[in-house]
Design a protein that fits this description.
alpha+beta; 3-stranded antiparallel beta sheet
Length: 64
Amino acid sequence: QGRGVGSMLFEAWLASAKEQGAKALHVAVNRANERAIRFWAKQGFRELSLEDLPKGRTVWMGRS
């Protein structure tokens, strides 16, 4: 943790998604994992508003 490995893996995932024509990405993060939420926010992800789902322990985040 804290060595940039997550960012490198994310960049590889992003490149692969772009190659395959993805227009948006989403991830599910445990609400208690504040470090992971900060990581994904730093990568441009924002919490998705899913009105049909009750607020549980999963935070759904996405980015275009």
